[in-house]
Specification:
By secondary structure, this protein is mostly helical. It is built from 40 helices and no strands. The radius of gyration is 41 Å and the shape is elongated. The N and C termini lie far apart (104 Å).
Amino acid sequence: MAKDNALYEDALNRGHSYLWDQQWTEAVKSFETAIGFAKEEPAPYAGLGDAYTGLERLQDALNNYKLAARYSRGNVIYLRKVAEIQELLGLESEAGKTYMALGEMALNRRQLNEAMDNWHRAVRLEPNLLRAHQRLASIYQRQGAVRSAIQEYLSIAHIFQLQKENEQALESCQMALQLDPRNSDILTAIELIKQGQPIFDSKEPVITSTTSVTGMLSRGTQGDWDDDKKEAETAAPVQDARRKAMEELAGGLFDEEEDSDINKLQRDHLISQALDFQRRGMANEAISCYEQAISSGEESTAAHFNLGLLYQDKLRFEDAIREFEISVNEHEYRLASSFALGEAYRGRGRIEKAIEYFINVLKIVDLKTVQHNQADRLIELYENLADSLVAQGERDQATAFANALVEFLSHKGWEDKVSQARQRLDSISDAGMMILGDVLTAGSEQVLESLYLSQEYTRRGMYNTAVEETYRAIQLSPDYLPAHVQLAEVLARQGRRGVAATKFTTIANTYQVRGDINSSIAAHERVVDLSPMEISTRARLIDLLKRHGQIDRSLEHYAALGETYDQLAQVDKARETYQEALKLTPRATDSLWRGRILRRIADIDMQRFDWSRALSAYKELRQLEPEDERTAITLVDLHYRVGQNNEAIRELDKYLIHLVRSGRGAKVIGILEDMVNQRPADANLVDRLSRLYLQQKRQTDAVDLLDKLGEAQLEAGHTKGAIKTIEKILKLNPDNIDSYQQLLKQLNQQL
């Protein structure tokens, strides 16, 4: 069947939605439908693999992952799935070969750490995989990791020995010997090969690069290998702090005191001994000296930190915690002490407490990589991460996070890794700020790589490719929400606004359950951006904002909701919405919100000719906005409309006086002229304008103005008012004074 893009994508999207909801059987049906439209597209086969994994049909999952890998021409994500399922099925040799291939692909992409991780997995599953050991040996040698390189060369020698190729086994040992000519393990291995004896005990497992050579050789020494392994497993920040502490303590031994202090001399002697024992690996003796020094009054943070490390090495975790809780209070030891506390609590099995300190480690490191104005949001994201990791039922996730953090910080050059990670996070953080914790919770660097590629494809308008790349990230880490956010954004850019809005709603609810309220709010806001008329979503968003104290943002959405009701001709609903918003305005940080909402209420009342309600709103607006001309004039007009003429004139006078006092008296005449034009029969308005004309020597204009007033009064039957107006005109000595006198006489006679 020819590929139909729309039907194919619809089936594919339904399949992924079913995966998200763990409806495995429905997902299988949708992906099989998608395959009917595109038999050589990898994505639906990968989806089937995920669905069959959920159904625990691992052989079917493996078959489909293999097809996905074939049609994608060896996509890393699909090959990794193949390896994982092979491992679960007990196909260890096949899984080892697949991981070997993954390592080669990572090497081609110059991702050395990922390549080595895959080769380590390969030799764990298939210990006699010669090529993997050769790769690891070569890289360790170039990196200067002598002991690890020697391990690999001896493993290679063992494999050659099993293959009855003793000459090549000896060559491998000679390559190891070039790295350490006096190494007793290598010399022993050479002798055993020459004697035709196996270099590993038959009862012991074959060596891998993560297992010590010692104990597998028939003869050898344990100490050096254990020390090297221990150093490799210590986080780089802790190693740096240990060196600093030892240098600080050594330097303190030479401080000169003005007075001869016998206690100081004794403490210095104990510290000197402790440092010597610590350098020589004599932990118990070092501990004893540090304990005596501290009991004698030694108060330095460095001493407490070093003693904590020694306690930790001896698995005395409670004692170590006590010392690190002292050293963590000093800035220079805070990072290392926080990490050490995390390790100690992890050693005690208190993973929740360990996570608290590990999160603090990342936060300390990450705060140095962001702008000052981003600090509050970054801290909040770490708090949310901590809450999610220690939530009930998430112990495995917390443990995985702790392991990933230890690995992340366990190499020299970790600062460069942090800097590179921040650059990558910033490049894919269009949908919101990301933290270093994302590197660890994503589950794989490939997840972030796929998100980066997805954004690049989106920028180029390659939306289908961007969607598929995002699905790859989701397949690798189904619970990693930034991947789902990216998918929703791509769908929105693609014009599929309804589907995107539904996706954002699911994301918002998930964030809310996880306690990340700001991210939930952001996702809800994307829903209303995509569907502005979606009243129920905006109402939920307003409620969420109110409950979490974000009053100004809730008022923004109240205003938008009121506009929506207005557009739907539901004016009563609009007014109710604004009234609800008005109750919140006293809690807003922006003092202008009350005026904005009141004006919207007043506008509705004006449109409905509800002058009394509008008058009430404008009275308050007048107090809030004393400089606003529109408010002042409208208030005067409303007083007239409800028959409160005296109040209207009083408000008008107050505003006109304010204009004069504030140096804007020139506006008074224009305002009065406009009002007289609207109400030419209002004697109070005409009186004020005519007096203003007279002040400006505009007698003719004043007479004309009063004349029009008199005519209006006569037409309205207000004879007494007309008589008073004519009397005012006569006082101005108009040109046709005789006519006015005659008219005045006639009116008096009528009365």
